[in-house]
Amino acid sequence: MSFDCSEHLHYKVLHLTGEVDLSNSSEVRKCLLDILNAGQSVIVDFSELDYIDSSGMATLVEGLNVANKNNLQLMITATNGAPKQVLELTRLDQVFTLVNSIDEIKE
Amino acid sequence: MSERNLPFIQVKDLSSYYGDREVLRKINLTINAGEILVIMGGSGSGKSTLLKNMLGLMTPVKGEIRFNELNMCQANKKELFKLRRSMGVAFQGGALLSSLSVGDNIKLPLRQHTNLDENTISIMTRLKLELMNLAGFEDLMPSELSGGMLKRAGLARAVIMDPKILFFDEPSAGLDPVTSVELDELILKLRKAMNMTIVVVTHELESAFTIADRIAVLFDGELVITGTVDEIKNCTDERVTNLINRTPREVQIDGEKYLKRLTEGAA
Fold first, then answer.
1. Which domain holds residue A47?
2. CATH architecture of B1-86+167-173+197-267
3. What is the distance in angstroms between the Cα of A26 and the nearest Cα belonging to chain B?
4. B4-58 pLDDT, tens per residue?
5. What share of chain B is helix, strand, coil (3-state, %, to 5)?
6. Complex ipTM over 0.85
7. Chain-chain contact of B117 with A26 (C-beta, under 8 angstroms)
8. Structural domain count, chain A
């Protein structure tokens, strides 16, 4: 798994690549919470993500909760394949704002 | 996923004994990655013994069990630990620790085996409780749950670390028909979303026919057949048709041996 960040409008974009699981979700958590605690909204990009387990999903749920408390936004983009099925299984597809691509997100 | 249909667990020439009594005879079985394999058979057929061998709770007297390239019988402690971390086991009665709340039971593997933050552990636990229709039961003690709830809580604990392989012993035993169907649907969902390889031991026909990609039928410690649901339904072997048609076993009596058992005890 690797991740890097870029900017889109006033959002920080967190690009996740490969597999997020028990061995590395703590790193994603730290990065995500750092961004949100700095007062910036986040787009989590799933386009290169092959797999995310429930520790990764729990990290995103915690992030969304922090975002909501601070009037920030956390969106997920480009969900497909196994990560999409995990979102559906856990019914988190009804909790997160899902967008097809970053380009759809306007100010 | 592309891993599907690749051999994942291979049981080769496995024989197992309780004392001098042979309870599994030369079992050969392949379980493919991402498939649901149901092990069926009557009481005493060797289902649970086969499961115990696959879990490493019993050491095969003859034969071997491989998980991908790893021969479980020759694995060192580190390899076995890593292998077991990739396994989840849901026992028949749930096997929850009675002194811990439902939530703490489910959190236990994460607290023991990971360094995850407690917030993450709590959310993961609630996600699994939601999945098992047990939302709000986190603080209850196991003694306050019904049989079906205990089973679902046991399943929640078995999958809390998102294992690659799930072993499920008698998921439907003792459940009402509706709860049983719900549990079957849950097993299918877990496989679909998490691509788990699932091994289910059961003697419930309906459940087996609903969830199985393939079924392995055991009879008196022998593997009679491994096949798809249709292949099992069309099998003409009397041991299989008796199981499907729920025909009681006809006990063959050897008069001489019977007399010996009665007068001298079991041989």
1. 2-104
2. 3-Layer(aba) Sandwich (3.40)
3. 7
4. 455 689 999 999 988 888 899 999 999 999 999 999 988 888 998 999 999 888 8
5. 40, 25, 35
6. yes
7. yes
8. 1
